[in-house]
Amino acid sequence: MTQDSHTSAIRERMRALEREIARHDELYHKYARPEVSDAEFDALFTELRALEEAHPGLASPDSPTLRVGNDLVNDLPEAEHTIPVLSLDKCYSGADIAAWIAKTARADGQALSFVLEEKLDGASIVLYYEDGILTRAVTRGNGRIGNDVTANARTIRGIPLALARPVTLAVRGEIFMRRENFARYNESAGGVYVNPRNLAAGTLRSVRSSAVAHVPLEFFAYEGFFEDSALDRHSAILAELAALGFPINPASGLYSEDASLQAWARETFPEWRVGDPAAIMQAVGDAQAARANLAYDIDGLVLKVNEIEARVRLGYTAHHPRWAIAYKFESPQAVTRLLSITVQVGRNGRITPVAELEPVAVSGSTIARATLHNEDYIRQLELAAGDMVAISRRGDVIPAVDRVIEKAETAEGALVWTMPPACPCCGTGLVQRGAHHFCLNRDCCDRLVGRLAHFAGKAGLDIEGLGGKTLLLAFEKDLVRHPSDIFTADWTRLVDMDGFGEKRVANIMQGIEAARSRPFAQVLSALGFESIGPSLAELLINAGFTSAAKIIERAREGDWEVFAATEGLAEQSARQIVHEFSDPRNLAELEALARAGLCMENAENKGAEYAQSMQGQRWCVTGSFEHYNPRDLAMDEVKKRGGAVISGVSSKTTHLLAGTGAGSKLQKAKDLGVRIVREDEFMEML
């Protein structure tokens, strides 16, 4: 075989594989009728990719292997839209829809037909094709400029890479996820995502298209803008988009007085609802009732004028087209403008973005600020200063920004807010750990003040009279820097300063004195160490770590497993305990608090003769007992004497308390040489 014939054979095989993969893709995604197994499909895909890697010059620009994605980091460059990408006018009642239909018909003066579509709760995107090839995919952005996410869009199977005809056009559509796929994906990811919409929008803006390829995103097209077309109705444009290979939402409807148009719609879109305009309100009611049982999330419906010439006559406002309206199923509790996004520095260095809002009344309260959690949350919502946002009070308590109603259309500024590179307080460069950013400067003023406020606040020692403003003043006047300073500071220096009189200062000092007698569990929680709150403090004490000295002793050994053996205490928290209680600065602060008279040992265990008898031992229990029913009572005795209780037998287990009917733990303990203790021997030991 000659070189030319060999090359020709390879090219023909690659084209055949492309056609075969495209056909199976269409059968699977468009018609839900797969003809081959996943393994067979993957084999075709793998063969094509191998040929492309060996012969890159023969690869097609619309090859289905482009959907796999790659690990090249893109910085989401900005791109201008060449079509109008506006918001929609909105309404929230059937009466509003009827009024809009009547107003629109009067304004145009002609008989109109309408198309009713679901308003998917996903991420909007505009696809640009040249001669039938996908060349650019751009997020909505502010309506004029969006982010170029072409590499990511190519990985979404519902988006055609090449069309059935070499046409040039722009297509608007929605990226979304089906509820079943979201639940499965979210479970595999550890349940970290809030809803399908946020995952879809966040994924679309991912910096790695390889990550996007693994998320089961889908696409529906809902508007087409052809460079050269004589199509005179929106419904005909949708039919043409379907013929070109775009998926169209089957849960739509056409409403017209024209019987011939109704007949065309029934033949072209068998799944659509078809009727006269009087049937629109019934369709709206049915859609709202069926919403909970849909395979994907929708937050409303969109009603559009069908005739293109009428759309031209009706025109646009600066904000929205006059020929379409969105019917929202639920009215937001409030809509306001996002003035800016500031950041707060927590006591442990975590940086939390905060929405600064135009004040608005929600559930009887005026809301001017709301937490935004982290940068990922902001990216999912696509938030930036100037946006109009819907807000609510989750659980009727916590203010929350739910979604963007309208992007800001200013020429300046970013389309989506990004985290500043440095701490706003001390200027230290921020470090990202997981979804959160941190300032690692332990002498950062905001961190120090935050730790003081936590230590003295309701979640800490609850020192009366020592609120956040007072502590900030004391910090600025160099009275306090660390929690132990609260007990040694000369508080009389505040007299006659910023409204502080002798009586007020005396009350502060009285509150500080009372705090010296707070129980050890409260002191432990007040320290403000990462992960160590009231619940974990109680867990530690109940597990036998009844004093700061005991915790420090095991932490210095680096034995996080002894803490992880405590039921209800995760490995991450156990490692954090070791880190916090072996840190030299923390140990110095603990010594200072002890010198100040704070309780560093659980009062119930002070002076008990048996307190140390099982220290260093790690006990497990199996079977049933005569005197200890339930058997946890026996383990409580171990904890009282300083022993650790673990749920499973391992090489670090020192004792297994075995009762009647002992299970597999007994055999494992024997295999590992763990000491086996029976009930009568256990009672003698006590």
Question: Count of helical segments?
Answer: 24
- Spans of at least 5 consecutive residues with low confidence: 68-74
Indicate the CATH topology of the largest domain. D-amino Acid Aminotransferase, Chain A, domain 1
Sum up the overall morphology in one term. globular
Number of domains: 6
Average of pLDDT: 85
Could you tell me the strand content as a percent range? Answer: 15-25%
Q: Rg, please?
A: 33 Å
CATH superfamily of the largest domain: DNA ligase/mRNA capping enzyme
Please name the CATH architecture of the largest domain. 2-Layer Sandwich
- What characterizes the major β-sheet? 7 strands, antiparallel
Helix content: 25-40%
Number of strands: 23
What does this molecule look like?
This protein is of the alpha+beta class. The protein has 6 domains: 3-68, Helix hairpin bin (Helix Hairpins); 89-328, D-amino Acid Aminotransferase, Chain A, domain 1 (2-Layer Sandwich); 334-441, Beta Barrel (OB fold (Dihydrolipoamide Acetyltransferase, E2P)), CATH 2.40.50.140; 445-515, DNA polymerase, domain 1 (Orthogonal Bundle), CATH 1.10.150; 520-605, 5' to 3' exonuclease, C-terminal subdomain (DNA polymerase, domain 1), CATH 1.10.150; 618-685, Rossmann fold. The strands form 5 sheets. Strands 13, 14, 15, 16, 17, 18 and 19 form a 7-stranded antiparallel β-sheet that branches. The chain has a 6-stranded mixed β-sheet with strand order 2-12-11-3-9-10, sandwiched between helices. Strand 14 (350-362) and strand 15 form a beta hairpin. Helix 6 (196-204) crosses helix 12 (375-381), helix 16 (520-526) crosses helix 17 (534-542) and helix 18 (548-556) crosses helix 20. The longest helix is centred in the first third of the chain and has 27 residues, at 3-29. The radius of gyration is 33 Å and the shape is globular. Mean pLDDT is 85; it is low at 68-74.
